[in-house]
Design a protein that fits this description.
- The protein is of the alpha+beta class.
- It has 2 domains: about 5-105, Homing Intron 3 (I-Ppo) Encoded Endonuclease, Chain A (Alpha-Beta Complex), CATH 3.90.75.20; about 110-165, GCC-box Binding Domain.
- It has 4 helices and 10 strands.
- It has helices at about 5-15, 65-75, 105, 155-165; strands spanning about 15, 20-25, 40-45, 50-60, 65, 85, 100, 125, 135-140, 145-150.
- A 3-stranded antiparallel β-sheet has the order 3-4-5.
- It is elongated and about 65 Å long.
Length: about 170
């Protein structure tokens, strides 16, 4: 953590508008002009076999920072451990959309299915044993809870979302 920019240095370099979630340079340096947008959206891979997602990144002193982490630093004067976006949009860095959470709560705010999900619907899986569709959810203790079997993927998805709202404190859908 020693190589992270300090609050004092970040405050000298960047202005953050918490209502708009935007960043501007306070000073001109290294090709950046005072008053212009700091950073911007970049497409980043989420991992092997996964889809890509967009992140807001800001380059400061030859290091890349995620916008939501800079927003937290500039607002609260300290680096966050994990930041979750309420609405699931990593480009929305308005302060009212950011919350400091545990990794468990952050993972509970997932809003879209993994790329390997063949139904294309969150929480809905194909029931290879009996045909049709099934749904299950991972609980806070790491165990899985079987939700049920369904005739359609939509029904499995809807049951999953209902269970998600009940069992996942981090769920915002």
């Amino acid at each position: 953590m020693a190589d992270l920019i300090s609050y004092e240095e970040a405050k000298k370099l960047i202005d953050y508008d918490p209502e708009a979630g935007s960043f501007t340079w306070r000073v001109s340096r290294g090709g950046e002009v005072s008053g212009t947008r700091a950073g911007g959206p970049f497409e980043a891979s989420k991992g092997i076999g996964r889809s890509k997602k967009w992140l807001y990144l800001i380059g400061i002193n030859y290091k890349i920072y995620r916008g939501h982490r800079i927003a937290w630093l500039l607002t609260y004067g300290e680096w966050p451990k994990i930041i979750d976006h309420w609405d699931g949009n990593p480009l929305n860095n308005r302060l009212d959309n950011l919350r400091s959470v545990s990794s468990r709560v952050n993972s509970q705010n997932i809003r879209s299915p993994m790329p390997f999900n063949r139904t294309g619907l969150l929480g809905a899986g194909i029931d290879n044993e009996r045909g049709g569709f099934r749904s299950e959810i991972r609980l806070a203790d790491g165990s899985r809870k079987f939700i049920g079997r369904f005739a359609t993927a939509i029904e499995a998805h809807e049951a999953y979302v209902e269970a998600k709202r009940k069992y996942h404190e981090g769920c915002t859908i």
